[in-house]
Amino acid sequence: MKRDSTCMEDDRVDQRTCLICGDRATGLHYGIISCEGCKGFFKRSICNKRVYRCSRDKNCVMSRKQRNRCQYCRLLKCLQMGMNRKAIREDGMPGGRNKSIGPVQISEEEIERIMSGQEFEGEANMSWSNNGDSDHSSPGNGVSESNQPSPVSTPSSRSVELNGFAALRDQYIGTPVSTHYQYLPHLFSYSAHSALVPPQARSLDPQSHSLINQLVSAEDLEPLGTPMLIEDGYKVTQAELFALLCRLADELLFRQIAWIKKLPFFCELSIKDYTCLLSSTWQELILLSSLTVYSKQIFGDLADVTSKYSPSDDELHRFSEEGMEVMERLIYLFRKFNQLKVSNEEYACMKAINFLNQDIRGLTNASQLEQLNKRYWYVCQDFTEYKYPHQPNRFPDLMMCLPEIRYIAGKMVNVPLEQLPLLFKAVLHSCKTSVSKE
After folding, report:
1. Calpha distance 101→110 (Å, rounded)
2. pLDDT (tens digit, 9 = 90+) per residue, 249-308?
3. Which residues are in the NR LBD domain (predicted)?
4. Is pLDDT larger for residue 57 or for residue 217?
5. Main-chain dihedrals φ then ψ at residue 277, nearest 5 degrees
6. Among 411, 377, 290, CA closest to 342
7. What does CATH list as the number for 206-437?
8. Which range is least confidently modeled, 122-126, 160-164, 273-277, 376-380?
9. 5-120: CATH topology
10. Strand, coil or helix: what is 17?
């Protein structure tokens, strides 16, 4: 019996390796066979007009384990192998365009112009954070993969006019756009002079207000019930701390399952898709909630418990490089969230956007998920611009945290279970210390 041609094509892809780093390829991305990681890295680099630097000889080895060590050489190889930047959607949203276009060959001079940032000259430079940076993308684009110093990003002055935004809002939110929306900037792109223009007071779109209230109502914002009190002088063992972490994870997961049933769009999706989404994102949802609405307990009560745990020399020596990377990224992300002081409304929107990931394999209705994702994307943007008019970069800052959460959650799976107590001790101690110094 002949197999379906699509299945045969999928099998061939499964047997292929990424032309950039050698990892398992997931398909044809921007003209060449590549993995999800390199696909997302290339898109973020081009969309955000990243300019990287190589501290070596511009010939760093690209492999699955070493691809994050030099962003310059990774982007250089993407261009040399024929990744097509014209296949990336200009609005930065998930889903490429011109999918039929294959690899492209560009001259060394053009590659040099891209790598040096000459193509972006005349546009103002902007850095995401003073504390360092990671690669980021819009939700649904894959994961962040960087531990390099903050690259320079350059905003574009390109904007979408009123009529285009009105159509988008009518489609995804269902309410005509208010007259106070004159332009919709690209997600990571604000005009160079925007910071000089005083923000104009405006109202929140009524439909945005209604949808946000529905999302917040679906949340269980009560304190966690898992006991995290400990007597003075008691020494916590590795087994006891691991058992406590498991209980916390159980409670947090249970809350996510209950949350799904209260979502305003619960009846719009199939049970199969909900199961697929939850199985792929539950770690991300738990991590997001731990860093925001439950952070006082996690970085307070749980930190007190972990401080009573003393790892052995053997545990310290066995701590993996994977664990070190997760630790560094968690500390950085904690500081970012602590700086932003995410509101319950923003948290509820971020959580819904992260959950509605149409790029997950096995979904039956990805297009419907994309529409829902965009709906809450615009709702969140509307709310942050209304609530925080003097923080024009707040919305992109929030959105750029999501791929980092996705990446960290994926990395934590690879940390050996016996190393989790030490990982949590190190992270919570560092975060609590940094807060006390502020």
Report:
1. 19
2. 999 999 999 999 999 999 989 999 999 999 999 999 999 999 999 999 999 999 999 999
3. 207-438
4. 217
5. -65, -45
6. 290
7. 1.10.565.10
8. 160-164
9. Erythroid Transcription Factor GATA-1; Chain A (3.30.50)
10. strand
Question: Torsion over CA of 352, 354, 357 and 362, rounded to 10 degrees?
Answer: -100
Using alpha carbons, select from 235, 133, 115, 241 the residue that is nearest to residue 188. 133
Residue of 147, 188, 227, 121 whose CA lies nearest to 398: 188
Contacts of 399 (CB under 8 A, 6+ apart): 136, 138, 139, 187, 350, 353, 377, 380
pLDDT for the residue 146: 36
Length of the chain: 438
The β-bridge relationship of strands 183-185 and 159-161 is antiparallel
DSSP string, 193-243: TGGGSPPPP-PPPHHHHHHHHHHHHHS--SPP-S-----TTPPBPHHHHHH
Averaged pLDDT, 381-399: 92
Please give the pLDDT value at position 33: 83
Dihedral sign of CA atoms 244, 435, 324, 307 in order: negative
DSSP E strand boundaries for 25-105: 27-29, 32-34
The DSSP result for 296-342, as a single string, is HIIIIIIHHHHHTB---HHHHHH--HHHHHHHHHHHHHHHHHHHHT-
Taking phi first (over 0 means left), then psi (-120 to 50 degrees means alpha), and beta for anything else, what does residue 338 get? alpha
Listed by start position, the domains of the chain span 5-120, 206-437
**Weakest-pLDDT range from 148-152, 254-258, 365-369:** 148-152
Summarised one tens digit per residue, pLDDT across range 98-131 is: 444 567 778 888 888 888 888 766 443 433 333 3
